[in-house]
Amino acid sequence: MRKSPTYALGTMALLIVWACQGPPPEPLESSEVLKESRQIKVITSGGFSAAFNILGPIFAQATGIELITEYGSSLGGGPESIPVRLARGETADILIMNRPPLDELADSGNIRPETRVDLARSIIGMAVRSGALKPDISTTEAFSRTLRAADSIGYSASVSGTYLSTELFPRLGIWEEIQSKTQRVETERVASVVARGEVEIGFQAISAILPIEGADFVGPIPDELQEISMFSAGIMEQATNPEDARRLITFLSSEAVASIIESTGLVPEVVVE
């Protein structure tokens, strides 16, 4: 019987893990110890979540290591943002987030500095509601016209939105004109707000736009206006399973999974051993 594409992808990915990571660790004698030691808790920011939602289950199936995955933005004051979660005492084995905030967590003693690994670069894109006219944002002039013409604009509370609202829009000389019709989205993807029709256009990392049903990806903002963000992983000082955490990070940064990461709208940053 001919195998489905999903089955083929799963089989290929399992082989990838075996090739990159070696065979799964030997089972431990105590089932209780086994259960505890074969878990990795990961908190990932939205920009890398589409890639992780594909690669995480592949890793778990191949190794038998259970992944506990939670989500939060790299910045911002929302209750699910990673800094706020850590401030209220939450811990994890791995954090995946934008590099500058991750570096700050390493400086403050939350992340083991030597474990930081860059995974993928991200650029900012624009979304509209599915079926809506896709405005021209191909040049700086067209981008500015689209912002002025829009009835409402959404941007994220994380790194990309902070850049847009505090640097780019003021630099273009249009912030005072458009500020009253902008919305800072703190607790969900900007494209989800666009899909419900609550804002006409929205901006976020492309990888955070593509998975959202009901929203269409228009394109990246012009190259000369871009702010490239790096998504990186690091192991927390409080990690309960640092060895398997290292193994997962090695997998996520391997050349073998680069094409999967790229398919989610990111540019993989492959670690060469």
Written description of the protein model:
This protein is of the alpha/beta class and 273 residues long. It has two domains: 5-121 and 230-268, Periplasmic binding protein-like II (D-Maltodextrin-Binding Protein, domain 2, 3-Layer(aba) Sandwich); 124-225, D-Maltodextrin-Binding Protein, domain 2 (3-Layer(aba) Sandwich), CATH 3.40.190.10. It contains twelve helices and eleven strands. Strands 2-1-3-10-4-11 form a six-stranded mixed beta sheet. β1 (39-44), α3 and β2 form a beta-alpha-beta unit. The longest helix has 18 residues, at 46-63. It is globular.
Characterize this entry briefly.
The protein has 273 residues and is of the alpha/beta class. Helix content is 41%, strand content 21%. The protein folds into two domains: 5-121 and 230-268, Periplasmic binding protein-like II (D-Maltodextrin-Binding Protein, domain 2, 3-Layer(aba) Sandwich), CATH 3.40.190.10; 124-225, D-Maltodextrin-Binding Protein, domain 2, CATH 3.40.190.10.
